[in-house]
What we know:
- This protein is of the alpha+beta class.
- It has a single domain (17-161), classed as Spore Coat Polysaccharide Biosynthesis Protein SpsA, Chain A, CATH 3.90.550.
- The chain is 28% helix and 21% strand.
- It has helices at residues 23-29, 32-38, 58-67, 108-112, 132-142, 156-161; strands spanning 43-47, 71-77, 86-91, 94-99, 119-128.
- It has a 3-stranded antiparallel sheet, with no helix packed on it. Strands 3-4 form a two-stranded antiparallel ribbon.
Amino acid sequence: MLPVPRTPNSHKSEWYPPGHGDFFDAINNSGLLDRLIDAGKEYVFVSNVDNLGADVDLKILKHLVDTQTEFLMELTDKTKADVKGGTIIDYQGQVRLLEIAQVPSEHVEDFKSVRKFAYFNTNSVYINLPVSDRISECFNKNGLFTIILTGTQAPRELWWRGA
């Protein structure tokens, strides 16, 4: 998960908008994770700053607590207005997040299709804090939250199969 700035004075090449992809590094490196756990916090809700309608749904939070769910990503039915962002796909039997930035230009219209990709990732996630290290390791290993660097494309199998 590089580049990741380690100090406020890090070189500008280490600063870029990775989305939720660096949440785990940021919360760990800053010491915030330990402070939240020490304060008795169990769950965190993370959403993009541009998603002004995002808020904690108490029914979802109750479900997490009741079922001891460690991670939940909110999805919604994709509409024609949902042209940016990501969708959930099946890739080699695993759930993966496919972002528009990973889609080759010749397949962007396919990606925008509500028939081919029925669900839209709202970028609102709930995370169980005590197990966030394990979740982070799983995501890094399996590529669910892959940081997308400029020019990076998903393997061809990702963008033509759809959900």
